Task: inverse folding
C-alpha cells in the first residue's frame, strides 16, 4: 500500500508529523492495518527490508 511506504519513509527521515498523518490516512483506508499483519498486505522478500519497513511504521505510530 503506497501510503504505508510514505508513512515509514517520513518516520525514518525524522518527519514525525508527516509520518503520523500518513499513518492516519492508512488507518482510514484499512482500519485493520497492523504491524502484526504486515506480511498479509506487504510482499517483502528480504528480511532486512521488512525489518526497516516495520521500524518505520512503528515510529509512524502503526499499532502492533
Result:
Amino acid at each position: 500500500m503506497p501510503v504505508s511506504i510514505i508513512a515509514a519513509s517520513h518516520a525514518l527521515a525524522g518527519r514525525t508529523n508527516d509520518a503520523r498523518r500518513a499513518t492516519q490516512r492508512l488507518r482510514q483506508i484499512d482500519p485493520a492495518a497492523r504491524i502484526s499483519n504486515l506480511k498479509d498486505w506487504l510482499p517483502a522478500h528480504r528480511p532486512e527490508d521488512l525489518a526497516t519497513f516495520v521500524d518505520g511504521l512503528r515510529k509512524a505510530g502503526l499499532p502492533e
